[in-house]
Fold this sequence. Notes:
The complex is a heterodimer.
Chain A: E1 8-10, E2 13-15, E3 19-21, H1 30-39, E4 43-49, E5 63-66, E6 74-77, H2 86-99, E7 104-109, H3 114-127, E8 131-135, E9 143-145, E10 152-154, H4 159-172, E11 178-182, H5 189-198, E12 203-206, E13 210-212, E14 234-237, H6 242-255, E15 260-263, H7 269-277, E16 282-285, H8 287-292, H9 297-310, E17 339-343, H10 353-361, E18 366-368, E19 374-376, H11 386-390, E20 397-401
Parallel strand pairs in A: 3-4, 3-16, 4-7, 7-8, 8-11, 11-12, 12-15, 15-16
Antiparallel strand pairs in A: 1-2, 5-6, 6-14, 9-10, 13-14, 17-20, 18-19
Helix pairs in contact in A: 2-3, 3-4, 4-5, 5-6, 7-9
Chain B: H1 8-13, H2 22-29, H3 39-43, H4 50-58, H5 62-72, H6 76-82, H7 89-92, H8 105-115, E1 130-134, H9 138-150, E2 153-158, H10 166-169, H11 178-186, E3 194-197, H12 203-212, E4 215-218, E5 224-225, E6 238-240, H13 241-252, E7 264-268, H14 272-283, E8 288-292, H15 304-313, E9 316-318, E10 321-329, E11 332-346, E12 352-356, E13 363-366, E14 369-372, E15 376-377, H16 380-385, E16 410-412, H17 415-418, H18 423-445
Parallel strand pairs in B: 1-2, 1-4, 2-3, 4-16, 6-14, 7-8, 7-14, 8-9
Antiparallel strand pairs in B: 5-15, 10-11, 11-12, 11-13
Helix pairs in contact in B: 2-4, 4-5, 4-8, 6-8, 9-18, 13-14, 14-15
Amino acid sequence: MKxxxxxxxxxxxxxxxxxxxxxxxxxxxxEMIARGFEAxxxxxxxxxxxxxxxxxxxxxxxMASLEPGSRMVGLHNIDLISERHIExxxxxxxxxxxxxxxxxxxxxxxxxxxxxxxxxxQRAEKVGADLVELSISCPQGSMLEDEETAxxxxxxxxxxxxxxxxxxxxxxxxxxPIYVKLSPTVxxxxxxxxxxxxxxxxxxxxxxxxxxxxxIDPGSLSPLPSVQGYxxxxxxxxxxxxxxxxxxxxxxxxxxxxPISGVGGIYEWRDALEFLLLGATTVQVCTAVLHRGFxxxxxxxxxxARWLVRRGYANLGExxxxxxxxxxxxxxxxxxxxxxxxxxxxxxxxxxxxYVACRDGGHEAIDFxxxxxxxxxxxxxxxxxxxxxxxxxxxCVSIEAVVTSAT
Amino acid sequence: xxxxxxPLVLKNQGNxxxxxxxxxALFEARRCLHCYEAPxxxxxxxxIDVSRFIRRLGEENFEGSYQILxxxxxxxxxxxxxxxTSDLCEGACVLHRLGQSPIRIGALQYFVASxxxxxxxxxxxxxxxxxxxxxxxPSGLSCAVALRRFGHIVHLFERASTLGGxxxxxxxxxxxxxxxxxxxxxxxxxxxxxxxxxxxxxxQGAGRLLQxxxxxxxxxxxxxxITLSIPGVELPGVMSALDFLRQARLFTRGEVPxxxxxxxxxxxxxxxxxxxxxxxVKRLGAGRVIVLYRRTxxxxxxxxxxxxxxxxxxxxxxxxxxxxxxxxxEGRVQAVEVQPMRLTSVxxxxxxxxxxxxxASSYELLCDGVFLALGQALDEAxxxxxxxxxxxxxxxxxxxxxxxxxQPQIFAGGDAVNGGATVVxxxxxxxxxxxxxxxxxANQRR
Lengths: 407, 446
C-alpha cells in the first residue's frame, strides 16, 4: 500500500512494519528466519537460549490443541527453550545481521544467576543483536530461587524478582535495549510492569503463553500432549488467549511509559489493530505462523495499511492507544440507555438457537412458534446480547437502542 | 453355481449415497446448528431426534448416538441408506437457507448405525399382552419391535421364507447392500419375537388369530399388481417391474441366474418402482431404457432424487406418453405403440388428469422388453374376511393417530394403509401402531 507508513519505533529502534516473529520453533534456525524476513516480517525474536551449562531435554510430542484443525481455538505446547545454546545462536545472529542489516533481531535469553544473565546480554550485544528479550515468564522454565524465601518462582510472577533481574540485565548492557516478556498468570500485571520500569527496562512484551492443561485423553487418562502416558503443564497460545492478552496490554499501557510489544492470539490484521489500539507499538506473532506459515505477513500488512488509509491515518503511530480511553471502570459506563435485540427476519433461517439461549440463559424474551419466526418481546428483553452471539447467521441479530414512540 | 455372473451391480457401481468415514462424520457433525424443535426431526416420519444423535456422534459417544436412532427407528442403517433424505430430513435442514449444503444426515445415520449397533434391552412385563402380526415387512417388524420393547409377547407371521418384505426382496442392491439388510434384520433375533416364516395367513386363519391373541396388526402391504388391458400384455418380455426387481435382487445375491434382459426396455409408470427398475435394468446392461409416464415430471410420484439419479445413469424419459398396445413377433415383444397424452383439469386427488392428445398420432417404439410399474393394490380378501372398512382409494381404513382399524382389536400400517409410500413411512406407522396397541391393551385391562 502506497501513501501510508507501517513503520514504527520500538525501544528506540525503527521497524519497517509492526510485525515481529515471536520466539518459537519458527525462529530456531537462521534459514527459517531468513525466509521470514524475505517474506516481509520486520523483525524476529530468536528462540530463547541460555548458557552452555543449561541442559535442555525436550520430551516429544510437544504439541496439542483445543479443537485441532482449521478453526483451532488454541495451541498448547510443552516445548522448552532452544536446544541450541548461546554460542550457536550468536553465530546465527552474525549470519542474519550480515544479510538483513535493516531487519531487527532480538535474542531471547534466560538464566539462573546474575553472572549468567550478564554473560548472555554481553554476548548478544557483542554479536550485534538489536535487542534482548528477557524470558522470565515461560511456563516451562524462567524459574529463579528467591534469596529471601528460598522458594522457586517464575520470575515474572514476583515484582521484586522481576525488578532485580531487569536491573541485572540493564547493568550488564552498555547500549543494547532490554525489554521484558511478562506472564498473564499474575494477580496484577500492572505491578509487574511497573517493576520492569523501575528496573530500567526499555520495554515490555506481553503476554507469554498461558499456563494450562489443554485436555486429557479419555482412553489413556493421560493429559495432552501424551508423552508415553504422561504430560506436564504447558503453554497455551493462539486465538483463545487474545482476550487475556488484550486486557494485559491495556493494563500495562495504563501503568507504565515504556513501549509495549503486544502478543497473544494474533492471526490477522484486525487482531494486530486491536493490540495497537490498546497501546502496543509492535506485535509479535507465533501461533498463526505455526498454523499458516510466514506467508501471512502480506495479509497482515495489507489489511492494516488499507484500514489506515480508509480511516485517514498517515502512519501507524497515530493509532497507538486510541481505544485505551474507552476502556472504563464498569461504574463509569453510560447506564440507563434502553437497548433491545432486533432480529432481521429476512435473514433469519428459523433455527431457534436464539430462542433456546434466551429461554435458558437470558430473560425468556423471545417467542418461537410453529412458524419458526423468533419474536422479541421488547418489554422482557433487556438487550443482554446473548442471542446476537448465539445466532449462526451473520448480521441477523443486533442490539439496538429502543425507540419509544411518543404517545 | 460358479457360472453365475458376479454381482457386478454392487462391485462396479458402489452405493449412490456418498458415505462418510469416522473423521468425516465428526467433521460433518460439527456443522449442525442443533435447531430448536428441529425441522429435520419433524420431516422424519419416525421423528428421530436428529440433533441429539448428531450431538452425541460429535462427542464421540457413538453408542449413545445409536441409542437415539433405534429409540425412534429400529432400522437406522437401512433408512440411512435408502431414505429419500433430500426430500425429508436433509431437505428440511435450515442450512439451505444459509446458502450451505444440508447436514448429510443419512450418511451420518448410516455411519453410526452400521458401526455401533448395541444390544436391545427388554424388560419383561408381569402380565404381557399377546399380539399377532401378519406381515414381516418394515411396518410389521417395527410394530413387533415396539411391542417387544414394552414386554409384550409377539408372534409374527410372514408368507415368504425370509423377513424384510420389500427391504429384503425388492429394493435394488446398489441402493441397499444385502449385508446391511442381514445385519439389521439379524439384530431382531435377540428381541425374542416368535417368527413364523413361510406361513401365509388367509381370512380364516386371521379369524383364528383374533380368537387366540389380544390384538392383531396387519402389515400386509400391497400384493396385487395393477396391470393394463391392452393387446400384447400377455407376451413374454412383458413383466411387472416389481417381479423384475425381485429377480434382480436374487441374482445379485447369487441365488438365481442372470435375468433375461432386453436390449431396449420400456418401463411404464412414474413411481419409484418404475425408476428403480429402470436403473437396475440399465445397470445390468440394457442398452436403452425408456420410462414412459402419462403425466409430466410435475405430477410424477417418484422422488425427485430418484429421477435425477436415473437421468444421470442415462435412462430416457418420455412424458405425456402411454402405451396403447404391445406388438410382438414370433412370440416376443417387438415394439410398443405409444399414445401421446395431454393434461386436463385438476382431479379429485389433486393431480391433473390426462387424456389422449387428439392432435398427436400414436407411433411405434421398438423395444424387446416392457416393465409395468403401474402401482399395486391391496389384496382385499383378508380385510374383507376380517370385516374391515376400506378407504375410497381401496386401502385399509385406520385412525391416523393410532392406526387402529374400525375393528378395535385390529391395527394396520404400511403400504396397505398409505397406498405405498417409503420404507421409513411404513416403519413409522409400525412404531406408532405398536405403541398404540400397548396403550389399548393397558386400557382394556383397566
